[in-house]
Design brief:
Layout lengths: L6 E7 L14 E2 L2 E2 H10 L5 E6 L3 H7 L6 E4 L7 H15 L5 E6 L7 H14 L3 E6 L2 E9 L3 H5 L18 E5 L10 H9 L3
InterPro entries: MobA-like_NTP_Trfase (IPR025877), Nucleotide-diphossugar_trans (IPR029044)
GO molecular function: nucleotidyltransferase activity
Protein name: 4-diphosphocytidyl-2C-methyl-D-erythritol synthase
Length: 201
């Protein structure tokens, strides 16, 4: 990813993992925590602006993982839901680069994320220039997702537990999708963790 494309990446990892009962960011898969795996995928692509949004269990997470190369932004209002983390991540990215053209959001609990998933999203966004390009898995559309600057004001208006896919339902919000085959598997419960362990190689 060349610097002139002016894309920031924000990894949203502030949630409290209430259903799991322990930080899912630190669940291990194939010898690495889920958060480390996500940061590694981002690092492979050479983005210039990289933001990591932390909130719940921040100290515990930062003791366990290296966030080198990422600017850590703290979300003190993480309990209010995803919208607050999106806003903090976008504001932190704009503070780094005021002329930002695109912002790519990821979460930390999609263990099968690969750099190719991100490359496809970015390519579609840059060539077709919609307001956003989302990942599609099964019947769901969601993250990772990349937004053009025309969508920034809309992202800043999200509230509570609203994720950025809410924007798809707005009139005149044109968007594209790219298939992320195993994107629907995320880690929310102990059963998910056990299932993940069985997929280790």
């Amino acid at each position: 990813m060349s610097a002139e494309e002016n894309i920031a990446v924000v990894v949203l990892a502030a949630g409290g993992s209430s259903r799991l009962g322990r930080p899912k960011q630190l669940v291990e898969f194939n010898g690495k925590t889920l958060l480390e795996r996500t940061l590694d995928q981002v690092d492979m692509l050479g983005f210039q602006i990289k933001i990591l949004v932390l909130g719940a269990n921040q100290d515990k997470i930062q003791q366990k993982i290296s966030s080198d190369g990422f600017k850590v932004a703290t979300n003190p209002d993480w309990e209010q839901g995803m919208a607050s983390s999106i806003k903090i991540g976008l504001e932190a990215a704009l503070a780094e680069e005021n002329g930002l053209d695109h912002i790519l959001f990821l979460v930390s609990d999609q263990p099968f994320l690969e750099p190719t998933n991100l490359i496809k999203l970015v390519h579609t966004q840059l060539t077709k220039n919609p307001k956003a390009t989302y990942s599609k898995y099964g019947d769901n559309i969601g993250v990772p997702a990349i937004f053009g600057k025309a969508a920034f004001p809309l992202l800043l208006k999200l509230k509570g537990d609203e994720g950025a896919k809410k924007l798809m339902h707005l009139e005149e919000f044109n968007f594209c999708t790219e298939t992320f085959k195993n994107g629907g598997f995320d880690v929310d419960t102990e059963e998910d963790v056990q299932q993940l362990k069985q997929m280790e190689v």
